[in-house]
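User: Structure please.
Assistant: Input sequence and predicted structure:
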Amino acid sequence: MDPASVYVQAGGEATFTALVAAFYRGIAEDPLLRPMYPEEDLGPAEERMRLFLIQYFGGPTTYSQRRGHPRLRMRHFPFAVDQAAREAWLTHMRAALDEVALPPMLDGIMWDYFERAATAMINTPG
């Protein structure tokens, strides 16, 4: 399945809103990852991620219209992302995916992307 069609197959904006909300509930309580979010209110970060994922998986291109090219590595470069941060991030994303309970094929497509993206963000040894 083409990742571009995942948005519709997964249930559209409502599913991505639920996924990202579940993810950020975990981030809010995480002692390793929470300090990487300089804003006291996680709402803006949640919105950016939701819009990015919607666009990446085939939905509206609002993210690029508002913020330009995603440039994920550049945007994450100011933060020390090591293997421990990758694992913590993936733990919260796995819990969020489990909460939204997508069909196995869609879950697999999204999980594959999240694992690859999390690895690509590593910029610090350790």
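The domain at 3-120 is CATH 1.10.490.10 (Globin-like).
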